[in-house]
Amino acid sequence: MKTRTLLGTTAALMISTTAAMAEGETVGFAQIGSESGWRAAETALTKQQAEERGIDLRFSDAQQKQENQIAAIRSFIAQGIDAILLAPVVATGWDSVLEEAQEAEIPVVLLDRQVDSSDELYLTAVGSNLVHEGEVAGEWLVNAVGDQECRIVELQGTTGSTPAIDRKTGFENVIAGHDNMEIVRSQTGDFTRAQGKEVMESFLQAENGGKDICALYAHNDDMAVGAIQAIREAGLAPGKDILIVSIDGVPDIFKAMADGEANATVELTPNMAGPAFDALEAYWADGTAPEKFIQTESRLFTQDDDPMGEYETRKGLGY
Amino acid sequence: MLLKRIAPQLIALAALVLLVTLVYPGFLDISFNDGRLVGPVVDVLKRGAPVALLAVGMTLVIATRGIDLSVGTTMAICGAVAAWAIASGWGLAPALLLALAAGGIAGLWNGLLVAVVGIQPFVATLILMTMGRGIAQLITEGRILTFNHPGFAFFGSGTILGLPVPAWLWLLTGAGVALLMRRSALGMLIEATGINRRASALAGVNATVLLIAVYVASGLCAALAGIVVTADIRGADANNSGLWLELDAILAVVIGGNSLLGGRFSILAALLGALIIQTIDTGILLAGFPSEYNLVIKAALVLVILVLQSPRIAAEWRIWRKSQRASREALAERSRT
User: Fold this and answer.
1) What is the pLDDT at residue A302?
2) Which of A312, B44, B139, B253 is most enclosed, with most CB atoms within 10 A?
3) Is Zinc one of the keywords (chain B) (predicted)?
C-alpha cells in the first residue's frame, strides 16, 4: 500500500502540464521515454498537435519502465481526464490498468506500438505498417529503373528485429514481380552509420568496385548515410551511379537528398498523435468508434519534395 | 626467437587468408586508384584500426593481470568530445587534444580505482563501461552529432602514401609502444608487476604508478580509436560507437597468445590477433553469406584458432607424434632382427 502511494506521488510529480487552453479537453500522454531521436520527435509533435487543437495535454515520461507508465495512467484516471494516449513500452501486462480506464469510461489510444490485451480494452491503435514501408520503397525503385537491368544491394537492420524482417519482406514482395531487378547482396548493418559504411565498402569491393551495383536499399536512413560516404570514397557518385532509397525520414537524409546524394526515403512519421486526436475528436463529438488500427501514412519523399525545407522543419524536433 | 613467438598467429592468419581466398577469389587483389591503394586487404588494414589500437593498450593492461572493459565506452566519449569541439568551431588541434585528454582522464580514473583504491580491475573498469555511454550521450544530447570538417575527416578516410590514415595510426602506435617496451626496461617492469605485484614492489618497482600508467595508455589508445571511428562517419554516434569492441580487443590479445593471468606479453602478436579478427569480419562480408551466419562463422573460426594454440593440445600432439615414432622405430627394429 505504502509503495503504491509512493509510486502515485512520483508519477504525479513527473506529470507536467503543457500550455493549456481552458476550454479544451484534457488528454494524458503516457510516453515511454526518450530513448531515440525519433521518440523525442514524437513527443515534440504530440505537444505541438495538442496545442494547435486547444487540447490540454498532460505529459508523463516513464523512463522506459512499465510500472511508471501504469502509475501515470492510474493518476490520469484519478484526475478524471477525457482521454489517455499510451505508447506502451512492452506488449504484455496492461489488462488490469486498461480495465480500470474502461470502468472510468476514459478512452485509451495506443501510439506506435501494440499490446497483447483484448482490443475491447482500448479505443484504437495508431501505428505504421513496416511491411508497407518496404513496399513503398520497392515501388519507388521499380518506377525509377523501369525496364533496365538492376542489381540491388540491401543493408538490413539488426538481424532478427521486427523492422528488419518486415521491411525486407515488403521490399521483396514488390521486387518479386520484376525479373529485371535482383537483390545480389544483402547483409546486416545493424541500423548504424558505421556498420552501414563498412558493409557498403565490402559490397563495392565484391561488385567490381561498385560498377555492377545499380541501387542500394537500406532499412534505415542512418545506414544509408554511412553507405553514401563509402560510395563517395570509392569514387562513384551516390544518388547517380548508385540509386539510394531508405526508410525513416531523419533530418540528415533530407540533407543528403538536397545535395543530390540520396534519392528517396519513406517516412516513419513521428506524428502519431495527429490521427489519434482526429479519432478522439470524432468519438467525443458523436461517439463514432474508429477502426481498431489506424495506419499512419508511409509517405515517400524524393529529391523533388523540397528536401532542404523538410530538413529545416525536422532538425528542431529532437531527432 | 621473435618469429617463434608469433609463429602460431602468422600461421593462423595465413590459413585464414587462404580460406577467405577460396570463398572470395579476389581477396588478395590490390589496385592503385587516384593515389590510394584499393582492395580487400587494404580494407582489413583500415577497418581493423579500432580493434588494433585498443589491443595495444589492452595488451599492457592484461600484462599487469588487469583488464579494461571500459575502452569501447571511452571511444564513444572521446569521439563525442572531438565531434563537439569540431562542431563548436574549436579547430582541429584543440579537438584532437581534448579527445586525447578525455581518454587520458578515463584511463586515470580506472588506474586510480585499480591501483590506489584497490578495486578489482574487472569491476573498476565495469563502472566506466556502464556510466560512460551516458556521459557520451550527454555530450551529443542523444543525437548523432555530425560535422563537416575535411581536416578531421582525414583521420578516418584520408590516405598517406596510398595507405589509409587509420592503418598508419595503428601501425605507428603499435610499433612505437612495442619499441618503448622492449628498448627500455618498462616492458619487463610491467611483466614483473603482472606476475607478482608485491614481490616487484619489494624489489623496488613503483607498481602503483606503473599500474596507473598502463590504464592511462589504454585510455589514450581508446581515444585514438574513437577519433578514427568518429572521423570515418563524420559524426559521433554515442549509442553505437565502440559498442562491444572491448570484447574484440580482449579477444585480439588472447588470440595473440597473451595470458589473461598477466606476465609475458607481445604487442606484435596482439596486433596479429586484431588482423585475424578483422580478416574474419571482412571475409564474411565479402563471402556474401546471409547475415544470420555472421556470428556463428566468426565464433567457429575463433574457436578453431584458439584450440590449435592451446598448450595442452600442442603437448598431446607432441606426445602422440613421439609415441608414433617410437612404435615405428620398434617395428623397424623387429623386422631387422
Assistant:
1) 97
2) B253
3) no
User: CATH top-level class for B2-288?
Assistant: mainly alpha
Chain B residues closer than 8 Å to A193 by CB = 144, 233, 235, 237, 240
Q: For residue B228, give the C-alpha cell.
A: 578514427
Domains of chain A (ranges, CATH numbers): 2-128+270-288 (3.40.50.2300), 130-267+303-315 (3.40.50.2300)
Q: Is A179 exposed, middle or buried (0-12, 13-18, 19+ CB in 10 A)?
A: exposed
* Cα–Cα separations (whole angstroms), residue B10 to B15, B113, B148, B273: 9, 37, 40, 9
How wide is the angle at C-alpha B170 spanned by C-alphas B166 and B174, nearest 5°?
170
Mean pLDDT rounded to a whole number for chain A? 90
CB-based contact, A202 to chain B, within 8 Å: yes
The whole-number pLDDT of residue A197 equals: 96
User: Do A192 and A233 contact (CB within 8 A), yes or no?
Assistant: no
Ordered by start, the domain boundaries in chain B are 2-288
Q: Report the interhelical angle of B267-287 vs B245-255 (nearest 10°).
A: 120
B237: contact with A, CB 8 A cutoff: yes
Using a CB–CB cutoff of 8 Å, tell me whether B282 touches chain A. yes
The pTM of this model reads: 0.87
Confidence of residue A40 (pLDDT cuts 50, 70, 90): confident
